[in-house]
Predict the structure.
Amino acid sequence: MRKILFLAIFASGVVALLAPGASATGKKAARTRAAPVAISTRKLPKLGTVLVDGKGRTLYMFVPDKRRKVTCVRTCAAVWRPVKLANGAKAVAKGAAKASLIGSDPDPGGGRVLTYARWPLYTYVSDTAPGQAKGQALNLNGGLWYVLAPSGKVIKTKP
């Protein structure tokens, strides 16, 4: 009788461990989803309303990308960090940003880079606080860098 009871308890434990989405306690495992990436807007002096990330950091486009593909890689990407879109993550538009202009392109370094009006988006390492635009109109790392308006228009004004 003990052997049968032991086998029944053992078998039910094995079934609980092997069941899809179940843990040793029999509870369903929580499915983790990648946090959404927010594209928002902010009004900056002399530049007007521009795109920013969820932390308020100014977003830039790189002229050599030509609205076709990410060209800022290796050393360039250490200074101009591409806005990555994690697997399973969604991009959301806030403020005056338009969801219809958001997309993504393959990153040569792996993964995907968020795009707006087909321009891959980047943050600038020298922008250390929200609302800064130290990278605006810089000719650095092989080309010019500009902010974008919510319409997708490139803003070439020098600050």
